[in-house]
Amino acid sequence: MPKINISQPHKDAQAYRFDMKRMRVMIGRSSENDITIEHRSVSKGHCFIDRLKGGFVLRDNGSTNGIKLNGKREEVITLTNGMVVEIGDVPMAFTLTEEECDQLTAERFKARPEPVAAA
């Protein structure tokens, strides 16, 4: 299963590692989320990660401070291995093992349509 690393902007905070075992993982400040981030810039139900065939996407859930890639606010971000995004002001690194990268590549390859021969 892919793993997500979350690091908070506090020097003493330890990185949080989460196994993606479901098709959708909720992230926010509320303890009802799968991943709880206790930071003032994070909304109660801030965003979620969806597991799609061949990959993952991060989707904003109408939060106040949004999700960002390279400092630019986005509604949806396609996650790639090693990518760092921001949930509010909290950086989140998305990492996969080599085996997981191979599995996602195989899923993407299977999802492509078969070529059609010209008549």
From TrEMBL:
Domain of life: Bacteria
Residues annotated as domain FHA: 25-74
InterPro entries to which the protein is assigned, alphabetical: Cell_Proc_Reg/RNA_Proc, FHA_dom, SMAD_FHA_dom_sf
Signal peptide extent: none
PANTHER family: NUCLEAR INHIBITOR OF PROTEIN PHOSPHATASE-1 (PTHR23308)
Name of the protein in question: FHA domain-containing protein
Organism: Oceaniferula flava
Phylogenetic placement of the source organism: Bacteria, Pseudomonadati, Verrucomicrobiota, Verrucomicrobiia, Verrucomicrobiales
